[in-house]
Amino acid sequence: MKMKLFCSTALALAVIMASTGCRHKPVAVTPIPGESGPSVAGPGPAPTFNGNPYGGGTGPAIAQNQNWDVSQFNQDREALAAYTIHFAYDSAVIRDNEQTSLQSVASALQSDPNAKLLIEGNCDERGTEEYNRSLGERRALAAREGLAKLGVNPDRIRTISYGKDKPADPGHDDAAWSKNRRDDFVLLHPKMGA
Asked: In the CATH scheme, what architecture does the domain 72-194 have?
């Protein structure tokens, strides 16, 4: 009798767990104070980046619904590589010592009105995939908001979160983790004829 009750309870518990398992949810855009118009993507097809819809579980998380696509631009990863900003553990707050880098990125964008920017939010390997995607997006959005406060039109900026998928340092210690908690800035130039 006890065995039947145990098996029935275990089966019911397994069914409940299977039907309510982890689901990936899209990451919403954080509005920038003073920005006009809706900033959260409405219903309809999810935007994609390199063919991966955000919230799809394996691709990078993106959170914009703008009228331009990163694929329309040539990516210059070297131009702003020296201005990568780093974050404290489990934080999306841009530290005071990173403001100079943010100002340099703003200056580069203000000097080239045709350029746009991709901000890639990254995390260290600790934490779940879903949590790190969300944290990476918050980090990228913090930089976007900081650039907007410095006079850069936020419509020129896309953000993407790679979570823990693109470490700068493959190590498994504090030194590596501190390098991996970062925002990378990719300068985007229009392709010829686009």
From this structure: 2-Layer Sandwich (3.30)
pTM, two decimal places: 0.68
Where residue 184 falls (left for φ over 0; alpha for ψ -120 to 50; beta otherwise) is beta
Task: Name the stretches of the chain with pLDDT < 50.
Answer: 15, 17-65
Amino acid, res. 38? P
DSSP assignment of the chain equals -HHHHHHHHHHHHHHHHHHT-----PPPPPPPTT--S--S--SSSPPEETTEETTSSSS-EE----S--GGGEEEESSTTGGG-EE--TT--PPPGGGHHHHHHHHHHHHH-TT-EEEEEEE--S-S-HHHHHHHHHHHHHHHHHHHHHTT--GGGEEEEEEETSS-SS---SHHHHHHHSEEEEEEEEEPTT-
Alpha carbon distance, N-terminus to C-terminus of the chain: 73
pLDDT digits (tens, 9 = 90+) for 10-49: 555 554 544 444 444 444 444 444 444 333 333 333 333 3
* C-alpha–C-alpha distance, residues 179 and 154, integer Å: 26
Upper half-sphere CA count for residue 177 (Cβ side, 13 Å): 12
